[in-house]
Amino acid sequence: MSTQPEKSYDQKRNKVRQRALLSGKIYFNNRASVFDCLVRDMSLDGARLVLTDPISTPDAIDLYIPQKEQTFSARVAWRNGVELGVEFAQDRKSTRL
């Protein structure tokens, strides 16, 4: 049995995320459900999102960032209160709404 502590999610990440302060929208249920969020940091592979209230989201979401005019298909990798860590789909294509 190893006595080394388990790596945090930040330590497991392959890419460094850049700090950001972007408004975003989380869509799910075939875009029938939408919630505002704040994108706090972002990389080519994912992002850390902050919600105004803790909500239950499915594992698969779309993240729209109006300032970039882009939508990313994403998978929720972790949840912690009002924060979500998402990984963008490997074959993702950012699209405009």
Outline the structure in words:
The protein has one helix and six strands. With 97 residues, the chain is mainly beta. It has a six-stranded antiparallel β-barrel with strand order 1-2-3-6-5-4. β5 and β6 form a beta hairpin.
Short synopsis of the structure:
The protein is mostly beta strands and 97 residues long. It has one helix at 9-12, and strands at residues 18-28, 33-42, 46-51, 60-65, 70-80, 83-88. A six-stranded antiparallel β-barrel has the order 1-2-3-6-5-4.
| Strand content range | over 45%
Show unreliable segments. Answer: 1-11
In angstroms, what is the radius of gyration?
14 Å
Number of strands: 6
The major beta sheet can be summarized as: 6 strands, antiparallel, barrel
Distance between the termini: 50 Å
**Given the structure, what is the number of helices?**
1
| Helix-strand string | HEEEEEE
User: SS-based structural class?
Assistant: mainly beta
Portion of residues in helices?
under 10%
Spatial order of strands in the largest sheet: 1-2-3-6-5-4
Task: Estimate the mean pLDDT confidence.
Answer: 83
Shape: globular
Keyphrases for this structure?
six-stranded antiparallel beta barrel, 97 residues, globular, 52% strand, 4% helix, disordered N terminus
Topology of helices and strands:
Layout: H1 9-12, E1 18-28, E2 33-42, E3 46-51, E4 60-65, E5 70-80, E6 83-88
Antiparallel strand pairs: 1-2, 1-4, 2-3, 3-6, 4-5, 5-6
